[in-house]
């Protein structure tokens, strides 16, 4: 392959990710064998990702993020602005965006996906101007994100989430909120409101059984049960995305939502607290290209994903 046909990749590495201390040499070898010249940058804090993309955008043909869902979401707006396609090295704990796009958890195999060059056009969600690919939430998940010890998360992965979740559930309380869609406002008493852009979240839960990351809308659910411990009976339905069948779960689908609470409450996007209520949620259809394996029709449809080469 001649130098003129090789592409330039900017690889951004998060050493604080769960797998962030693993050697990236096998990744670099696969990328370079696939025709990419790779420049590596290490970041210590998520805001640095966007700054690096903006600073180095003229020296790259694509961006690769080595980290978890929070790291990838932090790159979204800068990648959208630059027009650069995005590659994912799933080195976090949950890696739900990689799961949604069928990107392998094996890192050299994920590098091969990028080297092959096929990209999938996907939607990006925003809340108060902050991007998310999977889900943004208010209530239980935000409390979990705040209470989760980073060292526990890195060492024990999903088990660390489970331990922190049990602590959150024992002291959880519902809150009052107003949900506005299409000019109609509904007042609710809820334990959590989640707004999904993609399909998977929380380590493999499904936002809604028909949800896809390129369907052009957001899926909302609100947990409005009296007894929070009923969640234990609902776990299987959350894994399949059928939780909307429970009468205690309110669901809605729209391109924009407004959520207000009596007092400001933190908003968790893809595992990171980024803003607070009042919150304006919006979907940006087909906003970014992400390297992904070429597959067949989407689950439950005859519609193939949108790919480019």
Entry summary:
Helices cover 28% and strands 35% of the residues.
Walk me through this protein's architecture:
Strand 1 (7-13), helix 1 and strand 2 form a beta-alpha-beta unit. The protein has 309 residues and is of the alpha+beta class. The strands form four sheets. Strands 5, 6, 8, 9, 15, 18 and 19 form a seven-stranded antiparallel beta sheet that branches. Strands 14-13-10-7-16-17 form a six-stranded antiparallel beta sheet. A four-stranded parallel beta sheet has the order 2-1-3-4, with helices on both faces. Helix 6 (140-147) packs across helix 8 (158-171) and helix 7 (150-156) crosses helix 8. The model has no long low-confidence stretch (mean pLDDT 87). Helices cover 28% and strands 35% of the residues. It starts with 6 loop residues before the first strand and ends with a strand. The protein has helices at residues 25-33, 47-56, 69-82, 96-100, 107-116, 140-147, 150-156, 158-171, 231-240; strands spanning 7-13, 36-42, 62-67, 86-90, 119-127, 130-132, 135-139, 175-181, 184-190, 192-196, 200-201, 205-206, 218-223, 249-254, 256-261, 266-269, 272-276, 279-291, 307-308. The chain is built from nine helices and 19 strands. It folds into two domains: 3-123 and 287-308, Rossmann fold (3-Layer(aba) Sandwich), CATH 3.40.50; 130-285, Sandwich (Tumour Suppressor Smad4). It is elongated and about 60 Å long. The longest helix has 14 residues, at 69-82.
């Amino acid at each position: 392959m001649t130098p003129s046909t090789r592409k330039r990749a900017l690889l951004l590495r998060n050493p604080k990710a769960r797998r962030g201390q693993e050697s990236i040499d096998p990744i670099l070898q696969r990328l370079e064998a696939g025709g990419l010249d790779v420049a590596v940058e290490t970041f210590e804090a998520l805001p640095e990702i966007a700054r690096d993309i903006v600073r180095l955008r003229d020296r790259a043909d694509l961006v690769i993020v080595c980290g978890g869902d929070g790291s990838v979401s932090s790159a979204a707006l800068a990648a959208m602005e630059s027009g650069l396609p995005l590659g994912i090295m799933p080195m976090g704990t949950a890696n739900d965006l990689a799961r949604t796009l069928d990107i392998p958890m094996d890192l050299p195999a994920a590098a091969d996906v990028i080297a092959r060059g096929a990209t999938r056009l996907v939607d990006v969600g925003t809340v108060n101007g902050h991007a998310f690919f999977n889900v943004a939430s208010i209530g239980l998940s935000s409390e979990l994100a705040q209470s989760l010890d980073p060292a526990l998360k890195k060492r024990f992965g999903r088990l660390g989430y489970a331990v922190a979740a049990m602590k959150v559930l024992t002291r959880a309380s519902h809150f009052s909120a107003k949900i506005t869609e299409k000019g109609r406002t509904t007042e609710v008493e809820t334990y959590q409101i989640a707004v999904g852009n993609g399909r998977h979240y929380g380590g493999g839960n499904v936002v809604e059984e028909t949800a896809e990351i390129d369907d052009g809308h957001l899926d909302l659910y609100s947990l409005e049960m009296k007894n929070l411990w009923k969640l234990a009976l609902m776990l299987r339905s959350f894994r399949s995305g059928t939780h909307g069948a429970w009468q205690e779960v309110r669901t809605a689908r729209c391109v924009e939502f407004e959520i207000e609470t009596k007092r400001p409450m933190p908003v968790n996007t893809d595992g990171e607290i980024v803003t607070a209520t009042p919150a304006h949620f919006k979907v940006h259809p087909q906003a970014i290209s992400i390297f992904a394996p070429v597959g067949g029709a989407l689950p439950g449809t005859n519609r193939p994903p949108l790919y480019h080469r």
